[in-house]
Amino acid sequence: MLIHPSPHERITALTDVFLGALAAWAAAHLFINMGFRYQVWGWAFSLLAASSLIGAIAHGFVMTQKTNTRIWMPLNLLLGLALGLFVVGACVDLSGEGAARMLLPFMLVVGVGFFLFTLWKPGTFMTFIAYEALAMVFALGVYAYLFFTAALAGAGWMLAGVLVTISAAVVQATGKAGKSIFWYFDNNGVFHLIQMAGMVLLFMGLKP
């Protein structure tokens, strides 16, 4: 495969690699802890790491549209499952392990359902934005409540991480691929940078 000629796509691929490496590092540190909470978040970060590395391939190399569409299939599955685990992780902090374990199969089914929808309606990026928005609004409400009631140590970090993640999604949804926001960073590249900051904040909140 040839490296993509667009500098915007190359920068997006590079930031995807950095995002994936950061997510893998966070997951490795979370998996050290044996609690259910850390395992859920560890898997969420692991899925994000895998999707980022696949995204780097999709953005960074020249390929046919058919090949690119096929690469996005497993990426959508990984993102769908990661968002489901994000919701389960927030549920652990809000209602405890028992409720989260009951919610887990449902959210995994939702994640797979999102993937199947993308197969039925390929290229519908706004579907992912809507799914992500629902997950983030739920998490925002959970961590705002836990922060203002002082019910969870690290809730402030988690709340900040969710807010930054939401701002990253807004940048990605409202920007235009291939159009510079600064230098060769388009909406996708800037999204990755902001998401990395959000990931660091979430990790700070998750530290035991």
Q: Measure the end-to-end span.
A: 43 Å
* Secondary-structure element string: HHHHHHH
Q: Cα-atom Rg, whole angstroms?
A: 17 Å
Number of strands: 0
Shape: globular
Give the uncertain stretches in residue-range form: none
Q: Please indicate the percent range of residues in DSSP E strands (runs of 2 or more).
A: under 5%
Largest sheet: none
Range of helix content: over 70%
Task: Count the DSSP helices.
Answer: 7
Which structural category do the helix and sheet elements fall into? mainly alpha
Indicate how many domains the architecture comprises.
1
Mean pLDDT metric: 93
SSE blueprint:
Blueprint: H1 7-31, H2 36-60, H3 65-95, H4 97-120, H5 125-148, H6 155-174, H7 187-206
Helix pairs in contact: 1-2, 1-7, 2-3, 3-4, 3-5, 5-6, 6-7
Give an overview of the whole structure.
By secondary structure, the protein is mostly helical. It is globular, with a radius of gyration of 17 Å. The chain has helices at 7-31, 36-60, 65-95, 97-120, 125-148, 155-174, 187-206. It has one domain (7-206).
Key terms:
7 helices, mainly alpha, 0% strand, 208 residues, single chain
